[in-house]
Amino acid sequence: MQNSFPYLDILIFGIIAIFLIFRLKNILGTKTGFEETNLNKKTKNDEYSNVVTLNSKRVDTEDKELKKILEADPKFNVIDFLTGSKTFFEMVLRSFVNGNLDNIKEFTKSSVLNSFKSEINEREKEQETLIIDLKTIKKNEIIGTKITKSSIKINVIFESLQVRALLDKNNEIIDGDRQKEIVVKDEWVFERKINQTTPNWTLIETKSY
Fold first, then answer.
1. I need a labelling partner for 194 at 20 to 30 A (CA). Which of 14, 44, 95, 132 fits?
2. Which residues pair with 175 in a beta bridge?
């Protein structure tokens, strides 16, 4: 009888071990609700690791035009410049249509401003109404530069989708089409003095294609 006790102890411990293994397996195999969340978190982190944060100070150093500008003005920010030129383009169109150039005169060369005024005065004299509905700006790019010792000139191309029409005093269309969208290409030249303290650019020339 006494010799059978060790075998009984082994049998009991074996049963306990099997029970614990079974319980441990069940616990490890049970989803607690955190696995999927952690997986999603890891996936998102992996995805975000491939996203490059947009830095407005970064420019394409291979672009020779931008290189020229940066050599003359290391603080030049191409993204800010193009964003500002786009906003100004929209502002000029609105001012020209409304016949009020007060908002843009500070940033426009006097000869360009006088040209705008002349066309506005002609419309008013003939009692004509200009309609320009700017739908979208499809292209806003730097296409050329001219650097001197004292200034930087940048040529910007604007390619936009617009609805344009000119109405006479009886609101009859004499030019354009109020129902048709057209592609309009403009080239504007902006200038800034290298040593000036303000970051403002001046519109010095405009032409359309």
1. 95
2. 166
